[in-house]
Write a structure and sequence with these properties.
By secondary structure, the protein is of the alpha/beta class. The chain contains 17 helices and 13 strands.
């Protein structure tokens, strides 16, 4: 059984790491040899969607992910250009050797592009984190999610909300597997390995005395006046506490052009996973427009203020420590006043966010093989033995 595991952008790497480890563990425990009926062979494919070191290479090293079997080197460009390159190059991979299952994660361009290509080549698709919805069609990620889920065969979901979304869209219960959250597998598996970033000592930060901020969505960073108002309101609302802002070079260029500076606003380069999670774990709160970070703060019990009008992860609000603040700069100060007064809500950890999601995924794949829902396209042939 050959499984293609697709990774294209930073969030993907955190989600695939525990799956690869679970596959290797299952093979070891089964004692099956490569090429046998029950052996799970995987082919790790890096699409190259994010290609700088902090966005990809360093993550593979820190999370113990093996070097990809291939890199499609799709590079940058418009979404259409990037999608086209990924599809063309992944098609070539499948023409050379067709996999039995294409496993995609999350909602980036690579997820959609490889799913469409695989489906047209007759390869079944498994979507890890399937079924989440924001209902916001201005988000490219929402288009990627819905397009991918419309052709997915097996859904590995993070919540009952996602399960309900899929059922409402006509997906059968036999296709839905509620497994939990592989990103949380990675988080819990690395809490003892976190690395203190240099900015902590440089700024003399103590536990619970600073904020962490991330901003990347075009609605927040591309409108210069709005970005300036957001940052100024955040700085004022944080009072005298420092705000550590790991900022993408593109966003930093915009900020520098706007002349936004304050003694308590500390810019850093993008951080590696182990350094960033250290910073979040010991912060007072996180201010973000990211989706994935709201999951991590929920599990770590860190207050999170999300600068968005909607979320595809409602469980981080109904159960977790996250609150939607909106994108209006005027809404920031009241939220920060609530936090600073000690009135922020406490949260709980959603069901099955326990570090075992990847094990459940592999268990379901093995069951699908046993019941015939997943079948190899052709018997495995070891090319070295044929020489």
């Amino acid at each position: 059984m050959l499984i293609d595991i697709i990774a294209g952008a930073r969030p993907n790497f955190m989600k695939i790491a525990p799956i690869i480890k679970a596959i290797e563990k299952a093979n070891k425990e089964s004692g099956e040899a490569k090429g046998s009926e029950h052996f799970l062979e995987y082919r790790l494919i890096h699409t190259g969607q994010h290609y700088d070191r902090n966005m990809s290479g360093a993550f593979f090293e820190q999370l113990g992910i093996p070097e990809p079997h291939m890199n499609l080197e799709s590079g940058s460009g418009t979404q259409a250009e990037q999608t086209g390159r990924i599809m063309t190059r992944y098609e070539e991979v499948l023409m050379d050797r067709k996999s039995d299952l294409c496993m995609v994660v999350g909602d980036v361009t690579s997820t959609m592009a490889c799913s469409i290509t695989a489906k047209k080549m007759g390869v079944k698709i498994a979507h890890v984190e399937g079924g989440i919805r924001s209902r916001d069609w201005t988000m490219p990620e929402e288009i990627n999610r819905v397009a991918t889920d419309s052709i997915t065969d097996f859904f590995f979901t993070t919540s009952e909300v996602a399960n309900k979304n899929l059922r409402n869209e006509g997906v059968s219960d036999e296709q839905i597997f509620f497994v939990g959250n592989t990103m949380i597998d990675t988080l819990l598996g690395n809490l003892e390995r976190l690395e203190k970033p240099g900015v902590v000592d440089e700024q003399n930060l103590s536990e619970g005395s600073y904020f962490v901020m991330t901003l990347h969505r075009p609605a927040n960073v591309d409108e210069e006046r709005k970005l300036k108002d957001l940052v100024e309101n955040i700085v004022e609302g944080a009072e005298d506490e420092k705000i550590i802002f790991p900022v993408h070079p593109r966003t930093r260029k915009i900020l520098d052009g706007l002349g936004i500076s304050h003694p308590n606003l500390i810019y850093t380069d993008p951080l590696g996973y182990l350094q960033f999670i250290w910073l979040v774990k010991y912060s007072r709160a996180v201010i973000t427009d990211s989706g994935g970070i709201t999951e991590e703060t929920t599990v770590m019990g860190i207050p999170c203020l999300t600068l968005r009008d909607n979320t595809e992860r409602p469980e981080t609000i109904t159960q977790g420590t996250n609150e939607l603040i909106g994108t209006n700069p005027d809404s920031v100060k009241p939220a920060l006043q609530k936090l600073m007064s000690g009135s922020w809500k406490s949260g709980s950890i959603p069901e099955k966010w326990d570090g075992k999601a990847a094990e459940r995924i592999v268990g379901h794949i093995q069951a699908l093989m046993q019941n015939g829902s997943l079948k190899p396209h052709q018997p495995f042939v070891d090319e070295e033995l044929m020489m």
